[in-house]
Write a structure and sequence with these properties.
The protein is of the alpha+beta class. The protein has helices at residues 3-12, 14-66, 97-105, 122-136, 153-164; strands at residues 71-78, 85-92, 110-116, 147-149, 170-172, 176-177.
Length: 180
């Protein structure tokens, strides 16, 4: 039915106009209700994702706390950020191989030292001490906190050999190529 025919029919029968208006209101209200429900569902989904992310973050933090850092390593290679030869030292846990393979993918593919089985807190203290020694010897990082020019390698190895060897369960001084 065209608009003019509808207007004529509604003029002859006012109840047709009321029915049409009621149907249009119902349709509009249903659309608004659906929009409201969709928004509420999206908000619930966002809240659920945020809660799941917070739970994952808490589990990761708990797992990290449960695994004390008992490994200290020193690796060298070509730094992918600067393109220069560099030395990277750091701490990990277990056997350290997962962390070392990540560094190998980043260009640090030669391992020089791996101290494992360090008593709790020793690896972290050795890391802090190494940063202080490098700073006092005027070595500046290539980038980050633990990425230094390869010229710092001698100081790093000498310091660690003296400090960590007596406390580690295992000391691997073999220069070893790493794969990532």
């Amino acid at each position: 039915m065209h608009a003019t025919e509808r207007n004529y029919a509604e003029a002859r029968e006012p109840s047709l106009r009321l029915e049409r208006e009621a149907a249009e209101r119902a349709k509009s209200e249903a659309a608004l209700q659906k929009l409201k429900e969709d928004r509420e569902a999206a908000a619930r989904a966002r809240e659920a994702r945020a809660a799941a992310a917070a739970e994952r973050k808490a589990r990761v933090a708990q797992a990290r706390a449960a695994k004390p850092k008992d490994v200290f390593y020193v690796v060298t290679g070509t730094d992918r950020v600067t393109g220069k030869p560099g030395v990277k030292f750091g701490i990990s846990n277990g056997d350290g191989e997962i962390r070392l393979s990540r560094h190998a993918r980043d260009g640090y593919n030669t391992r020089h030292r791996l101290f494992t089985g360090l008593p709790e807190g020793i690896a972290r203290e050795a890391e802090k001490g190494m940063l202080a020694r490098l700073k006092s010897a005027s070595h500046r990082p290539l980038h980050g906190r633990e990425y230094y020019p390869q010229a710092a390698l001698g100081l790093i190895l000498d310091s660690l050999d003296g400090d960590l060897t007596p406390t580690a369960e295992s000391v691997d001084k073999e220069v070893k190529a790493l794969t990532g």
